[in-house]
Amino acid sequence: MARRPLPRILSNGTTSLARGRDLARTAADSATDVFHPLLVIGRGLRVLASAGRRKWAGTPKDKRGPALFLGAACVLVLALVPYGPLLTLVTLMAAAAWHGRDRTPVRTGPSEAETERLGALYEALVPYFSIPEDPNPLFAHGGEWDTAFSGYAFDEAGRITRLRIRYPAYFTDGEAASRARIETLLHAKSGRGREYLFDWDEEGNQLDLTVLAPLPTGIAAQPFVTSPGETVLGFTDATAVQRTLPVLEDGEPRDAPPVIWRTGPRSTEPHLLAVGRPGSGASSLLRSIALQALHHGGEVLIVEGGGSGEFACLSGRTGVLAVECGPAGALATLEWAARETERRLIAAHRAREAGRPAPEDTRRPLWILLDRPSVLAHLATAEGGPDPLVHLQVPLRHGRAAHVTVVVAEQFDHLELLNDAVWQHTRARVVLGPAAAQQITDVLGLAPNTTPTAQVPPGRGYARLGSGPVHRLQVPATPDPYDDAAHPGHRQAVQELLPGRQLPSPGGPGRVALAKPLHIVHPPARAQEDSLDDEEFEAYDDIEEVPAETPPARGPWPVGP
């Protein structure tokens, strides 16, 4: 039996339903405007009828007869008088319209409690916005707050949610320290535990204070609608970016504004540094980046310094070259990554000289993800070995041209252990978890225009891409699917995004099988030899094939399918 197609309103998805709701709402509003006078008169007639019924019920029984006779006589007189019925109808409609009018009191100003709160805030700003030399100060003790405050709004608890402050022109609003003092004071006086947005208008000498709604935490890892080279770091406020992505939030479809990080040869911020505290969501950010890179056909190298096994779900997956958590394995892996970057540069340069496109293996993105690498550096130093982070200089400096991207996640307490190359070449920065304003400024290079709160959910923080503005950020929930304490729905979402297992390595279950040989190949055959000088060929001849064994997996988890 042939299956009948779904109705069109169901097959088109939520778009048709939303359009139908908008049309119905528009029609209802138009009908309300047209029939508003009739609704008012009908409500007034109901009020008059209720008043008449109450009056009749309150009349004693011995007086109801005379009252009924008197009413009938009045009706008879009005019926005999010229234009009497018409005047009676007009009078009745006017009385009904008067009694049926909207009697909701219009609020014209703040309440007594709100006025007291605005006055206290005004008095608190007097020492900051006034000087003794001002003959007519805008802020003065005992002054009127309504001359400086406008556009105020309050929530149900009586706390300020929106306020516009006009300050004198001599206030040093161009100095970060002066602005920070005002923002700290407003944050304390307007109510802690909320995040405020401060919009300074230096030209108009005005400051707009707005309470921001919390960012959504129900967006889990999912296939985002992005092109290759675009990575979704998280989601931010709708007014901060000009793009939205269709996502599922707690199972419901919606459009969310993302923070897009673009990588590749044309990127101005090819590498990223994420900083946070324990439990802030830095590992979740790395997992989210790894899943998106694998979704677009990239290759991933993971070096985990914590040794907690949070990346065990990626071990042995297609596209994951290695997952290392020991100093020796990390050293071998990063050394291979440095030589692979050099090999890609040489192969691409040879192809350009020969007038051919770059080889396919040099254009496939390679992602190097390091979680807490300072721990491995400390262990290597304690064992008397070399620092594994030394080999990051080549991928960091030349990774953009070789399609190599480096992502480093570190904690605040160990930032001094990162070398200068990491700080110089990671121009995309992310700060996660609770942090002081000065810490955020030191990492991002610019103070956020919002007040950080002490209690934030995992994955909540700030992001800045290069020299752009600072955005609020909520990382998609990407927990370890093997963590029983995580949300079951979020764990299932991550499990569905994991690529399939690759074939076991010939070296046994204790080794990680790489997706490609871990060695440096000789440069391609020389092309256009006559056009090149001997010195350039001698430089390429110095690079020989250097075989390197696949580094052993040192994680505490089983490896293999």
TrEMBL record:
Residues 522-561 are annotated as: Disordered. The chain crosses the membrane at residues 68-98. Residues 530-547 have a biased composition (Acidic residues). Gene3D superfamilies: P-loop containing nucleotide triphosphate hydrolases. Keywords: Membrane, Transmembrane, Transmembrane helix. Residues 549-561 have a biased composition (Pro residues). This is FtsK domain-containing protein. It comes from Streptomyces vinaceus.
